[in-house]
Amino acid sequence: MKLTKRSRLGTVALAVGNALREGGIEAVLTGGACANVYTGGHHVTADVDFVLRGSVTRQQLNAAMATLGFERRGDRYVHPRSPYYVEFPRGPVAIGADCQIRPVEQRRGRMRTLSLSATDSCRDRLAAFYHWNDRQALRAAVAIALRRRVRMSVIQSWSENEQAVAGFDEFRRELQRARRQRAQSTGRRRRSPRR
């Protein structure tokens, strides 16, 4: 696949994951780019994070990334025509204290990559909110839960284990507020007279 300046973040993330897979590298899409995929582009970030699984040499990683035109600069991979860069944070794949993460497969056309599930992506964003008071991460978690089916009981139980009950309560309130706003907006559009 050829990446251009017009390639969206979700497309870049899926293309990179697919190139890694084709290079025999198992990696899981996490972080803000994963949230971007689940929110249909509503959550914006500049970096694409993949956590590697198994042993991978720098040469293998460089070769796989080069198939899309990425080159290594320091601790990240950059592309001459894309504003997004790729990083490989140290594993294992974990969300807070939970290391029992089961990735899911994302598909678009012929591209395939492993990623966090919608529930786990929501938890991943909430972890940043709980531990660093990252309000943008809270908004991303709400956006994921608003657009995708997430398992609230899993999120609540995990939040309790993270000792973040107050944070979970705030997340739930923000999600309820977003659902009300969406319902009101939809209702106004339905009642608008035709011209």
Assign the structural class, choosing from mainly alpha, mainly beta, alpha/beta, alpha+beta, or little secondary structure. alpha/beta
Provide the helix percentage. Answer: 40-55%
Radius of gyration: 18 Å
Report the average pLDDT across residues.
94
The DSSP helix count reads: 7
Total strands: 7
Overall 3D geometry?
globular
Give the low-pLDDT segments: none
Taking the alpha carbons of the first and last residues, their distance comes to 44 Å
Q: Estimate nothing, just give the exact number of structural domains.
A: 2
Q: Which second-level CATH architecture of the largest domain applies? A: 2-Layer Sandwich
* Largest sheet features: 7 strands, mixed
From the 3D structure, determine the CATH topology of the largest domain: Beta Polymerase, domain 2
User: Main sheet: which strands, in order across?
Assistant: 3-4-5-2-1-7-6
Name of the top-level CATH class of the largest domain: Alpha Beta
Helix and strand sequence: HEHEHEEEEEHHHH
Q: Into which percentage range does the β-strand content fall?
A: 15-25%
